Amino acid sequence: QVQLVESGGGLVQPGGSLRLSCAASRSIFSINDMGWYRQTPGKERELVVGITSGDSTNYADSVKGRFTFSRDNAKNTVYLQMNSLKPEDTAVYYCNMWFRIGPGIYSYWGQGTQVTVSS
């Protein structure tokens, strides 16, 4: 089983920045399907940024130009740099990765990290 450990959440004022980290317990060198999601109470989990085949990076319109996805394969870690944060960005943020283990392909989620944007 793959463990994804998130960190970097917290309280920040509007216009501020945070960087979220998601460290995997297995190599992510060959992982193509991954992304960041967020969820607020009463709402379904929302895709913030996703990586598709061909290493294409797709951002939700609400975060485009403000959030940046990156990865460090040597550290088995992916990041979400969040700039110009707005109160509506407040949510629990989850990283997600798909791993091939044995004959199957499985989805794994981080434990979630709270991001609160408030003055």
Class by alpha and beta content: mainly beta
Mean pLDDT: 95
Order of helices and strands: EEEEEEEEEEE
Please count the helical segments.
0
**Gap between N and C termini, in Å?**
40 Å
Largest β-sheet summary: 7 strands, mixed
The amount of helix comes to under 10%
Categorize the overall geometry. Answer: globular
Low-pLDDT residue spans: none
Name the beta content range: over 45%
Round the Cα radius of gyration to an integer and report it: 14 Å
DSSP strand count: 11
Question: What is the topology?
Answer:
Layout: E1 4-7, E2 10-12, E3 18-24, E4 34-39, E5 46-52, E6 56-59, E7 67-72, E8 77-82, E9 91-101, E10 104-109, E11 113-117
Q: Could you characterize the architecture of this molecule?
A:
With 119 residues, this protein is mostly beta strands. It has no helices and eleven strands. Strands 2, 4, 5, 6, 9, 10 and 11 form a seven-stranded mixed β-sheet that branches. Strands 1-3-8-7 form a four-stranded antiparallel β-sheet, with no helix packed on it. The mean pLDDT is 95.
Quick take:
By secondary structure, this protein is mainly β. The chain has strands spanning 4-7, 10-12, 18-24, 34-39, 46-52, 56-59, 67-72, 77-82, 91-101, 104-109, 113-117. It is globular, with a radius of gyration of 14 Å.
Summarize this structure as a short list of keywords or feature phrases.
119 residues, single chain, mainly beta
